[in-house]
Amino acid sequence: MFAEIAPIPAGGETLASLYLAITKNPEHGTFHYDRETDGITLDWRRKQMKPSIRAVKGVFDQISRTNLTTYRAGLFGIGKVFSDYFTCHPLGGCPLGRATDAFGRVRGHKNLSTSRSPRSRNGTRVASPPPI
Q1: 93 and 76 in a common domain
Q2: CA separation for the pair 75, 79 (Å, rounded)
Q3: Is 117 or 79 the better-scoring residue by pLDDT?
């Protein structure tokens, strides 16, 4: 697990820390192309975040016990201390030369290309730019 402290964009001191955590999650989303709308949808359900939340909670429970601190509830909804409605943007996922040709065109899918960060020669990493 990797975690970073991010400021809460409140315009003032909140006496709270917001951590963005990245875990290895066995769940995977699936992209689908819809010919009628000429659009792409992502099939990803909130329940797929459970393995990540369990991993993060285990680490932060230990940190909280050691430092005699506690979670702040309510930042993500009534009584919630963890968010399960967003995910980071991975870098890599469509390796050049394997999933795509040298120009980022996805093999086996006419008129579908990747751009920017998914086109990685070296596998998956983490980055801020959205991959699609």
Answers
A1: no
A2: 8
A3: 79
